Amino acid sequence: GDGPALIFSHGFLMDLSMFDAQVEALKDEYRCIAWDERGFGNTPVIGPFSYWDSADDAVALLDYLGVTSAVFVGMSQGGFLSLRAALSHKDRVAGIVMIDSESAAFTEEQIEGYGAMFSQWQVDGPLGELGETVAGMIIGDPEISKEWIAKWEAQDRSKLQEPAETLLFRDDVTERIGEISCPVLIIHGEEDQAILIEAAEDLMGRLSDCRGLVRVAGAAHAPNMTHPEIVNDAIKNFLSEL
Predict the structure, then answer these.
(1) How far is CA 181 from the centre of its chain?
(2) 5-105+173-240 has which fold?
(3) In this model, does residue 1 exceed pLDDT 90?
């Protein structure tokens, strides 16, 4: 569309296609940009990187497309890079939609648990129970989960090491959230076990211009995929008030 630009940043293990329902709903009115982050979809990963680098990548993509500023819509790790973009490229971020994301880093316990899971993930062959567990945690919907498990099994999962380390050892930007001046909408699945809704409540309390927290009943970590109508309506309302 001819309206303001939106840049959609996906979560860990996902790719730009996770936002198909949002792009479909918003493309007539807005310029929708969805991209694959380092190590996912069609974007390769070359060496270590941080979510600050990913924020730079997103802004470089905007530069390439001739977009001066955009609303950053980020799910989970996509939210991590969106917060960092608002801190390091303030004038390029017109607003943020945080979907099941947070400002904090992992605890030692989480690093250990997820680290073990990601090591197992990189072993070749069918994912079996691990695939079911991860899909259940991220998506929660059995039909959509099946598609993603098939996609994951077809990938070269040995390439996950760098993106996994980026996720596991990310820095904590909680103390800097007060510096973010753009409007922010938070959307969070009430059943999310990967990032609890308390993280969204904490973020809401720290932001200077939070336009609300939309709690999606029955949704896990990816409400934009499982409950697209609710999420799309919330995004449309937020955008109409910018």
Answers:
(1) 20
(2) Rossmann fold (3.40.50)
(3) no
